[in-house]
Every structure is written in structure tokens, then in C-alpha cells.
Amino acid sequence: MNSRNTIHAFLGAGMLVTLVLVIAPVLYAVSLSFYQSSSFVDTPTWVGFGNYVRVLSEPEFWRALWNGTVYAIGTIVFQVVLGIGLALILNQAFPGRALVRGLSILPYLLPTVVVILTFKWMVDGSIGIVTRTIEALGLPAVNWFETPVAAMASVILVSVWMWTPFVTTCFLAGLQTIPGSVYEAARVDGTSATQRFFHITLPMLKPVLTVVVLLRGIWMFNKFDVIWLLTRGGPVGSTENLAVLSYTRAFNEFDIGAGAAIATISFAILSAVVFVYFRLFPLDTE
Fold first, then answer.
1. Under CATH, to which class is 51-280 assigned?
2. pTM of the predicted model as reported, rounded to 2 decimal places
3. Is the pLDDT of residue 1 over 70?
4. In the chain, what percentage of residues exceed pLDDT 90?
5. How far apart are CA 17 and CA 251, in angstroms?
6. Residue 263, class by beta-carbon neighbours within 10 Å (0-12 exposed, 13-18 middle, 19+ buried)?
7. Least C-beta-crowded within 10 Å: which of 68, 199, 241, 243?
8. How far apart are CA 227 and CA 141, in angstroms?
């Protein structure tokens, strides 16, 4: 088999896997949104755009859309700010740097269930180490999952802790591509550290920053596991995003059509945001 046939074979296998595991399920989900069904085995009833009209007229949908937007923006801002800061620190030369770099990626490697259960134990109202520390400091108790603001802050905090190492690694890789001679020339010209950061580091990191913000935005807007395991969308729907709402409608309320419609709308929203994003921040390929 020559190299051309090898390339075609791998390309065909990749396209087949994508077709079976991605495109086919997406098309099936979109088709379900035009039917009314209480289960996946019942004979569905064609309702056209009825599910979309019904979903868009419900306040729960708009609340979930708002919650998902707040959650995505909050997590992205903290991850990017912390990621750049940590990357700048890890890019400096200091004893044990290799070990610290290795340890910094550990939160990203932990299973989500382990992280959620650990956080719940830490903030437990009776034995949690965070709760005991707050009491020892004489500060008022925090009801982590009982108020909307605290619940949203909790899911953002956990997500930032889990995913900041990934963002840090991306920015660290970008920093290592910047020639040291550029910084040396800037120091000779008498620039400060702040000036070098805003006029050299950030512009040079723009391609990485563009991709990281895009990827984190897509993943955070669609995040399900952290929110479901931590709050299940509560209290009173204050942390429920479109992914959780779609799951609840389809598998808890057995409204398959509405759940598929919510997922399809979420996909359409993300597609539109990605298109606008690339129009505003095109990737520099030169």
C-alpha cells in the first residue's frame, strides 16, 4: 500500500467514525425535535415546529439560557486570567520548576466525580474543613447550595479549579514560542514589566487566546456533569443551563421532543456565536 492509499484509508476511517458517532446522532436529535413522544420506543407524533414554539415560550428556557451564559462567561474570565498568571510564573526559571509544572496539571487529570465529591465534603455543614475554618475565623456561615448566588459561585469555582490547568498549559506553550531576544530588546529600551506584558506578551499570545476562549466557551456553555453532580440545576433552577434543562425534559419528564428541541436550539446558538466570534477575532494564519 503506497502512501496515498494509506492517507485515504486513515481519512476514510476518520470520516466513518465521525459520521457514526457525531453526525448521525446530531441528525437524529434534530429529527426528534419535530416529533412528540414520551419515550424512545413509542410511535412519535409529528408536531413540526410545535416543540420549538412551546419551548421558546417557557420562562424556564430563557432562565436556563441566562444561567448558561453567566456560567460560561464567569468560568472563562477566571480561567483565562488565572491561566495567564500561572503560565507567566511557570515560564520563569526557579528551582523545581519541572516538578511544579507537572503538579499544576493534576486538577485537570482528576475525574469529575472525585472533584465534586471532594468539594461537597469540604463544604459540608457539619464536618467540612471549609465550614470549620469559616467558623474558627468567626465569619458568617455560607450556604453553598441553598441560595442562587452561592450555588452559581460554587459551580463556577469548581469548574475554574478543574480547567485552569488546561488553559495554563496552553498559554505556557504559547509563551515558550516567544523569542527571548524580543524581551531583551524591550528591556534595553527601558520598558517596564507591565509595558512588556501588554505590548509583547499579549499580542504574541493572541492566536492562543483566541482558540482557548473559543474552546472554553463551547465547553462551558454545554457543561453538564459539573452542574448536574453538584446542584442538579438547583436551587429552584438557579444553576440550570440548557444542557441540564434538555436532559431533565427528555429523561426526567419524558418529553423527548422538547428535550431535543432545546438541544437543537443550543447547537444553533453556539453555531451563530462561533460564526460571529471568528468574524470579530479572525485567526492570524500568516
1. mainly alpha
2. 0.88
3. no
4. 39
5. 26
6. buried
7. 199
8. 22
